[in-house]
Amino acid sequence: MEEPQEHNHQDPPKSSTAPLSPSCVKCGGPCSFPPPPTQSQWSEISPPPIYRPIRSPAINLPPNTNSQAIILAPVPQSQKVPTISLPHTFQSPSKKIQSPDDIRRFINSDSSKNFLGFVVALSESIRAHKISDSCHESTTLKNIVSVIESLVHWIEEIPPVQQSSRYGNISYRTWHNRLVENSENLMLQFLPDNLKSSTVEIVPYFTDSFGNSSRIDYGTGHETNFAAWLYCLARMGIIEEVDYQAVVSRVFVKYIELMRKLQSVYNLEPAGSHGVWGLDDYHFLPFIFGSSQLIDHKYMKPKSIHNEDILENFSNEYMYLSCILLIKKVKKGLFAEHSPLLDDISGVPNWKKVNSGLLKMYRAEVLEKVPIMQHFLFGSLIQWYVFFFLVHD
After folding, report:
1. d(CA 166, CA 160)
2. In terms of residue numbers, what domain contains 268?
3. Which residue in 250, 240, 234, 323 sits closest to 283, CA to CA?
4. For residues 63 and 50, is the Cβ–Cβ distance under 8 A?
5. C-alpha separations of 63 from 41, 53, 332 in Å
6. Cα 127 from Cα 289, distance rounded (Å)
7. H or E stretch at 377
8. Global pTM?
9. 3-state class of 27 per DSSP?
10. Which of 124, 128, 185, 263 is a good FRET partner for 57, with 20 to 30 A between their CA atoms?
11. CATH of the domain at 304
């Protein structure tokens, strides 16, 4: 009889606050691997029990031990984006968030609420729609899609080099340098004459949307920068509410296509990955938009992600299914072991609850995390509010 292979019981960090499993799933011996959240813990889409990045973040937040706070939090609501009045003075955006106090200030600000309301509005615009469904496509949006397609073509022109390290192919830096050098010209392809001066403000959001060239990594913070770039275009009136469905089904889908190619060709490392507790090593927003697409679907339920035929036949039309299919292709082993949170979500009764829970989770796990938001930019379009306190003698 073949001897069982040895394996390390102590791979996961011992500092996890999750309860420990009494035995190893492979050999039955004692181990420290934390079990996935239970169905009751996930009843209303609870968050991961702890944030565990691959590398230590610049600023550590205390672990969120009160998952009920997210469950009981109100579901974020859509908001109209206020457009600026012209003439407008644009400014180079800068980082402002350095501490948990700054996070609280941001979350309570109109900027944060309106930005999240914009994300909700995008989610609602794609509700019950397939990617290929016809929608209003302005010339501007077609030009934006063309810009992203150009970035996809650059990957073919800049092949990865042979190197010993698994992650972070240095050819990505060449690709990213070309992005930085050409970003202003790319913006001018769709900006009207009276808004050409906005490049000083919107270019930094755009260049930060595709990963970090020094670390050669990508994560939800970069994805949030892309959403912020779209929000800035909405603030300038370049994107209107009638465009929102196409923003998701044409622009954002093309962006995800680009990012997946960058991840696979240049082996971008996940930036601050949630590890075994996360939705995905790189993305969050496709799950929000994708779950909205499936709300009230006649046949496909959250549990349908376990049906291989459904994934293969419908992933090209539904973002959520596309994300699941990719995860199953690139990760080895049982789905419940490498993606326990997504596996548990599949037990939620309907897509509406999945969508509302993911929106609350995005607010808590992305917009309220210092390691992510310390890189977020603020200017005249997404303003940082300074509060003054009166000191009495």
Report:
1. 12
2. 98-378
3. 323
4. yes
5. 17, 12, 28
6. 8
7. strand 377-378
8. 0.81
9. coil
10. 263
11. 1.20.120.1150
Three-class secondary structure of residue 42 per DSSP: coil
Tens-place pLDDT, residues 308-323: 999 999 999 999 999 9
Give dist(CA 53, CA 391) in Å, integer: 40
* In-domain check, residue 63: no
Two structure tokens written together for 158: 């800049």
53 domain-assigned: no
Cβ distance 64 to 351 under 8 Å? no
Does residue 57 have a pLDDT over 90? no
119 secondary structure, DSSP code:
H
Q: Please name the amino acid found at residue 14.
A: K
- Asked whether residue 70 is domain-assigned, the answer is no
329 within a domain of the structure (yes/no):
yes
Amino acid of residue 55: R
Cα–Cα distance measured from residue 384 to residue 95, given in angstroms and rounded to the nearest whole number:
9
pLDDT for 271: 84
Residue 164: predicted pLDDT: 85
Structurally, the chain folds into a number of domains equal to 1
User: Average pLDDT for residues 349-358, to the nearest whole number?
Assistant: 96
